[in-house]
Amino acid sequence: MASRWLHWWSLRQPSMPLKAKGLREGSLYSRVDQAAKEHLLAEDMARWAHQVRLDANAQRHADENAPLPTPDDAKRCLDFALALAEVLFVLPARVTRGITETQKS
Q: Where do the domains of the chain lie?
């Protein structure tokens, strides 16, 4: 059971969605900051991404003294992942679709 939470915890980094948006160079820290600078993320969303990144560091870097993640940690991770996907992919697609639909009228 703990290994599943550990696996989930390690996947919660915001790295993959940022790479999908073309931010591939530098550390995750710098890519989150670059996403905010390019207005892909609001400043508050970038701050949340940094908190998520820091929370996962102990597990990702094999700190044997770090406590294992809990179901609550996984829920917080899922909440962040869903919000990040909404901001980076869902909302922009809805806006594009809305613009296209209003141009047809």
A: 2-104
Gap between the Cα atoms of 104 and 31, Å rounded: 37
% of the chain exceeding 70 in pLDDT: 80
**What's this model's pTM, rounded to 2 decimal places?**
0.75
Is residue 60 very low, low, confident or very high in pLDDT (cuts 50, 70, 90)? Answer: low
Name the token pair of 91.
């909302």
How high is the mean pLDDT of the chain?
Answer: 82
In order of 55, 92, 104, 105, the CA distances from 99 in angstroms are 38, 11, 9, 10
**32 and 18 Cβ atoms separated by less than 8 Å:** yes
18 contacts 31 by C-beta, under 8 angstroms:
yes
Cβ pair 28, 53 in contact under 8 A: yes
CA distance 85 to 100: 22
